[in-house]
Model the fold of this input.
Amino acid sequence: MATVSGLHASARRGASTSGTGDTGEVRVPLALYRVDQHQGDIDLVLSRGEAEALHMALAGHLGLAKKPTDAR
Done:
């Protein structure tokens, strides 16, 4: 695997995520930057399980995760 130190990724402007219903694959278009210099574009490709886990982790960080309800 190539080293990409010093790079960061942002959502690609004007591009939408896409999914494949039959496989559950999700593609997230990203733009790669070194500081503020655009270095190229790449798609983050996730399986359905990976996308669900990322969604839950992001929701937790944003305080949006569902809290367990009290069954009493």
Notes: The beta strands are 7-11, 18-19, 26-34, 37-46. The chain has one helix and four strands.
